[in-house]
Amino acid sequence: MPKRQGLYLPEFEHDNCGAGFICNLNGIRSNKIIHDALKILVKLEHRGAVSADGVTGDGAGILIDIPHSFFKEKCAFDLPEIGAYAVGNVFLPKKLNQREYCINIFENVLHQQGLSLLGWRDTPLNSEVLGSIAKKTEPSIKQLFIGKGDENISEEDFKKKLFAARKITEHQVRESKISESGLFYVPSLSTRIIIFKGLLMPQHINEYYLDLNDESLDTRLALVHQRFSTNTFPTWDLAQPFRYICHNGEINTLRGNVSRMFSREEILKSDLFGEDLKKVLPTVIRGKSDSATMDMVIELLLMTGRSLPEAMMMLVPEAWEKNEHMSDSKKAFYEFNSCLMEPWDGPASIPFTDGHYIGAILDRNGLRPSRYTLTKDNFLIMSSETGVLDIQPEQVAYHGRLEPGKMFLVNMNEGRIVQDEEIKNHVASLRPYRKWLDKNLVNLKEIPAKKGPIDYDEIDLIQRQIIFGYTQEDIHSVIKPMAQNSKEPIGSMGNDTPLAVLSDKPQLLYDYFKQLFAQVTNPPLDGIREELITDMSLTLGRDVNLFDISEDHCKKLKIQNPVISKHDLDKIRNYDINPDFKVSSIPILYRIDGGLNSLENALNEVTQKAAKEIEEGVNIIILSDRFVNQKMAPIPALLACSFLNNELHKIGKRSQVSLIIESAEPREVHHFALLFGFGASAVNPYIVNEIVFNQISNNDLTD
């Protein structure tokens, strides 16, 4: 993938694809499943893309069970029983010296983890089927076989050692000076599954990976994916499936999700990983696609002891907030986990497997299709569309479709389909979530408000409007219509005003930013008409270690809307009866006569005060630009918020506090979106409320 350059940013990587799987509920392994899976992939070719050479695809792949009998026959070294070793295809540099360098690093890390190297096998390949573009970045591919080292360690402990070994190796290679470090990648390293993928057309997978043509290669399940890179540069490592999922759709909330994950990594601790956990971090690698990033987070959640269905429920929750028909235990599960993980939201159908389970989950809006068919001989086929395999009508037991927010799951060990209600009720009953919530979660609406008006000794409203750059257009074309109609004023997406950076007029900092629009067939959502699936509530307070699944996660203050009134802010500011919460206000003002560096010095003072407050137990900080006067000017709220957000990241304290902005600046939806995007959890636009109150008093809101 190209590095950051010009207007291109790697974090814009998204994809929109075709995906499917086939499995045998009886657990019967066969080579036919592989052939049928490849047929599904070919049928999904129209959902993928091809490069300019006519042969290089955007990426395609297949995930299957580890073919133990096949490997025992093909490997020149002895293998223990299935489950007692791990195997994976490893992408390596093409240059011999760099390839050996990466292999040596991997083997040394395996030794440090107490794992045994069973051997390497050259993956049989046919590079002649590759297009010219794919050949330029084709890695050398070998299969790595790893033993437990200690026969007494459990399967779960073995998985965690494999995870640590792979992540540490990845980081060491990435930080090295070798020119082909970008080719190093481990598609999977598992005791259950193995992945074959690359920059291939669907029909070329078994022509490139020659093992797939061997009749002795068998599996109970196969997961396939055909990638369509909507605005990306296709690469070998971004081909799917990934280690646990493949993905058809787009994660619209990716930037926020990734930012929050980096915050959570500050406080990660694990007795099993010990000091190695620091070497494993960051778990999320910047610049990867939304699908790849989500897979990394799922992998981390599995390392905490959560099951794959539980991890999927946390990341892709169904619409639970206003669903009157949902059981209380399931609502409690979703509400508890909303305190520690925000939804990875967007139109998405996500097939997943860990070798024990295989299934799929659909986003709460149901914006991506997933259809399935069960045959009378117990073959289950799921895909982005119907008709991917030719099945005679008399062989069909039943057809179905995945519904919005629902999970379709197959327990391969029990050989049965697990219904959505069964698996979710089981996961929700594992811990006393409702008890934890009732004991710890505080709802702001239940805190009594101060009676009477809340007044501040400040300079005249007109003077403050001038200081904060309010225009007649702001007051009459933006604020007044919102107050009259309870909705944002309608405007054109087109804007012929000069770009802020080129304008010779004073500009608010917000004007230098433009909103991104969803780029992959996403219909607009209406939060009023589609109230059931939209919710704006969130929680304030300190985050807790993801490895500890305890009631401490929900020691939070819940607010129903991130745009809060001054009465709500007053309730938060003066809430001092609960030892789980400590609130502090920090002014974001600077001295006008302080010289050229006055603003910069004030920003540094804000950071120093915030860091000290956090050390003293503060977990909610209010940044306020009230009390401006002839001597003190306001720091732009967006600058103060983003600066503090970044500085707290640098010193490893961001996860310990929520930021609330009390500012006169924000008055448009765009302003609020930016503040939330740069770290604010809630905003009180106090001067807008004063303007509306003034308009009411003067009867300016009546036509």
Notable traits:
single chain; 703 residues; alpha+beta; Glutamine Phosphoribosylpyrophosphate, subunit 1, domain 1; TIM Barrel; 7-stranded antiparallel sheet; 5-stranded antiparallel sheet; 20 helices; 30% helix
Characterise the protein shown here.
It is built from 20 helices and 24 strands. Among the domains are: 10-307 and 345-357, Glutamine Phosphoribosylpyrophosphate, subunit 1, domain 1; 452-486 and 506-515 and 562-697, TIM Barrel, CATH 3.20.20. Strands 6-2-7-1-12-11-13 form a seven-stranded antiparallel β-sheet, covered by helices on one side. It has a five-stranded antiparallel β-sheet with strand order 8-9-10-14-15. The protein has a four-stranded parallel β-sheet with strand order 19-21-23-24, sandwiched between helices. The protein is elongated and about 85 Å long. The longest helix has 20 residues, at 155-174. The termini are far apart. The chain has 703 residues and is α+β, with helices and mostly antiparallel strands.
What's this model, at a glance?
The protein is α+β, with helices and mostly antiparallel strands and 703 residues long.
List the helices and strands and how they pair.
Blueprint lengths: L17 E7 L7 H12 L16 E6 L2 H7 L10 E8 L3 H17 L3 E7 L9 H5 L3 E8 L7 H20 L18 E6 L6 H4 L12 E6 L21 E2 L4 H11 L11 H5 L9 H14 L4 H8 L12 H11 L9 E6 L3 E6 L8 E5 L3 E5 L12 E6 L5 E5 L4 E3 L1 H9 L4 H8 L1 E2 L17 H7 L4 H14 L52 E3 L16 E3 L6 H8 L9 E5 L1 E3 L6 H18 L4 E5 L7 E3 L2 H14 L7 E5 L6 H9 L2 E5 L1 H12 L6
Parallel strand pairs: 16-18, 19-21, 21-23, 23-24
Antiparallel strand pairs: 1-7, 1-12, 2-6, 2-7, 3-5, 4-5, 8-9, 9-10, 10-14, 11-12, 11-13, 14-15, 17-18, 20-22
Helix pairs in contact: 3-5, 11-12, 11-13, 15-20, 17-18
